[in-house]
Design brief:
With 175 residues, the chain is an alpha+beta fold. The protein contains 2 helices and 7 strands.
Length: 175
């Protein structure tokens, strides 16, 4: 019996295959997660960039901007994506950024103070701030989190065509 080794390859195969499959599918899921995270970043930048190129925006414009930004997620599902676009005014005295207007999945209250990076606090200027949150649910949940991983990103741009991007106003306001 000790000399008969005809089944050793099958035994080794049975031990190694589950480990190799987990490593393979884990690599595939991790790579997909990285790709989705990159798309979330592009989505935030696109939403902010499209808005900052306008002199003024309407509800229809914002709907189109949201639609264009979610198109970036192809071939992944856009259902778990939540986007918000906000215009901020940085007070010249206190350097506190306050919301001028906000639209999207989780709009901010006009006049409320928000935290922005220190290097963007230039008094008397406006910022377009986009936020994107996305729940990535892996196809094979046994390798990664079954309930999903929340990916998020923000982007800041300055209005390009005027001092501010007007929304439901005829002049730039400073709430």
């Amino acid at each position: 019996m000790l000399r008969d080794r005809s089944g050793i390859a099958a035994t080794e195969f049975a031990v190694i295959v589950p480990i190799m499959l987990v490593m393979f599918f884990g690599t595939v899921e991790f790579s997909s997660g990285v790709a989705v995270d990159r798309k979330v970043t592009l989505m935030a930048r696109t939403l902010s960039d499209l808005t900052s190129q306008s002199l003024s925006v309407t509800d229809a414009d914002l709907t189109n901007f949201f639609a264009a930004s979610t198109g970036i997620m192809t071939p992944y599902s856009t259902a778990p994506a939540n986007s918000t676009i906000t215009e901020l005014y940085v007070d010249p005295v206190t350097l506190v950024a306050r919301v001028q207007w906000s639209q999207g999945a989780a709009p901010h209250t006009p006049g409320s103070a928000v935290t922005v990076p220190t290097e963007l606090k230039i008094g008397g200027t406006y910022l377009i701030w986009s936020e994107v949150n996305y729940v990535y649910v892996p196809t094979i949940g046994y390798v990664m989190a079954k309930s999903g991983v929340t990916l998020s990103d923000v982007a800041y741009t300055r209005p390009r065509q005027s001092l501010c991007v007007m929304y439901k106003t005829a002049v730039c306001t400073t709430l």
